């Protein structure tokens, strides 16, 4: 009897207290939310947009990396940073489906859809092949390939939730797609005018190859107002491909994990990917009040921004710099590939 009481008391003593856990999470969570708000303010700053337009996600990870590099953070914020990165990131990816409408893919036509499918699939495949030749981990190569082929930082974040890459891989991939996407945003209009491209050809090229949604739209309107609208449709069609890409990667990564586990055990399929697909379906076929939809999209933006801040705070810049020139070569290689492929396809379609 005495022994039973002792065991029971020991169990109660070590039982987790939800209030204590919540209190340990709050400081880090508050820090991430505050920096996410600051990232939105910085991204909307006209002076910054005039030089290098960046999304709040990109600004958020830059703020996190900079703060981690320059300021010694107290240990009390670490649990909340990890909690934000794990839970808010997955919630943000699920709600990201509210920005995708599968009907957008039909508006570009069968030829345009075939070109976009080829561009996305070949870019991701090429990234893995070239990454292995350069001695880079598959996690980094897949993130760079998806960020380049689909939709920049948002794709990197979503795919990271599937493959669970290292923090330095995510930070490096976002840096690559931001740098080369920004270069493309400014270079495409000048090159197009020099080549004498038509509005329709330029729209396919810009929407089919520029990394971020904001970058593709800005490059489109820099050429012509009609090009801005058409480039947006092609870009959104690429964004919609995030759904099948995440599903395929989830199965591929599950098989990789299963092959590495002892006794045939396999990693579980990530539930948030299924929820993401479900939300895309609801957004595509169910009518939702605009006020509710806009509110949920706003919540999603905040969740992803806070998660990006947490990603930056978890990143040690020294680990990223140790990767050297190889990620830069990978990012440049796949950016040139998708640009050349999209331009060739645009000339053929046009």
UniProtKB/TrEMBL annotation:
The chain crosses the membrane at residues 20-43, 50-71, 83-102, 109-130, 142-163, 170-191, 236-255, 267-286, 325-349. It is a multi-pass membrane protein. It is found in: Cell membrane. It holds the Pfam family Cons_hypoth698. Keywords: Cell membrane, Membrane, Transmembrane, Transmembrane helix. It comes from the Bacteria. Signal peptide: none annotated. Belongs to the UPF0324 family. This is Sulfate exporter family transporter. It comes from Salinisphaera dokdonensis CL-ES53.
């Amino acid at each position: 009897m005495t022994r039973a009481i002792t065991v029971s008391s020991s169990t109660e003593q070590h039982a987790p207290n939800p209030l204590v856990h919540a209190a340990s999470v709050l400081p880090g969570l508050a820090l991430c939310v505050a920096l996410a708000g600051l990232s939105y303010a910085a991204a909307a700053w006209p002076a910054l947009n005039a030089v290098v337009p960046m999304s709040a996600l990109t600004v958020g990870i830059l703020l996190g990396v900079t703060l981690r590099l320059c300021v010694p953070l107290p240990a009390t914020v670490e649990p909340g940073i990890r909690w934000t990165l794990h839970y808010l990131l997955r919630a943000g990816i699920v709600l990201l489906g509210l920005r995708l409408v599968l009907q957008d893919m039909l508006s570009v036509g069968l030829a345009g859809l075939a070109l976009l499918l080829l561009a996305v699939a070949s870019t991701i495949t090429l990234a893995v092949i070239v990454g292995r030749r350069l001695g880079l981990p598959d996690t980094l190569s897949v993130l760079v390939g998806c960020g380049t082929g689909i939709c920049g930082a948002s794709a990197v974040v979503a795919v990271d939730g599937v493959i669970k890459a290292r923090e330095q891989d995510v930070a490096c991939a976002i840096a690559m797609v931001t740098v080369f996407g920004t270069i493309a945003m400014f270079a495409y209009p000048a090159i197009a005018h020099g080549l004498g491209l038509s509005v329709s050809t330029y729209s396919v090229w810009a929407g089919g190859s520029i990394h971020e949604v904001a970058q593709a739209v800005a490059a489109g309107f820099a050429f012509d107002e009609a090009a801005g609208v058409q480039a947006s449709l092609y870009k959104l069609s690429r964004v919609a491909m995030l759904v099948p890409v995440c599903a395929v990667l989830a199965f591929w990564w599950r098989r990789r994990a299963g092959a590495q586990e002892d006794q045939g055990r396999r990693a579980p399929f990530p539930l948030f990917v299924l929820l993401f697909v479900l939300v895309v379906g609801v957004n595509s076929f169910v009518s939702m009040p605009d006020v509710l939809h806009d509110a949920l999209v706003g919540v999603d933006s905040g969740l992803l921004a806070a998660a990006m801040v947490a990603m930056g705070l978890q990143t040690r810049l020294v680990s990223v710099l140790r990767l050297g020139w190889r990620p830069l070569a990978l990012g440049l290689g796949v950016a040139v590939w998708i640009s050349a492929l999209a331009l060739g396809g645009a000339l053929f379609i046009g």
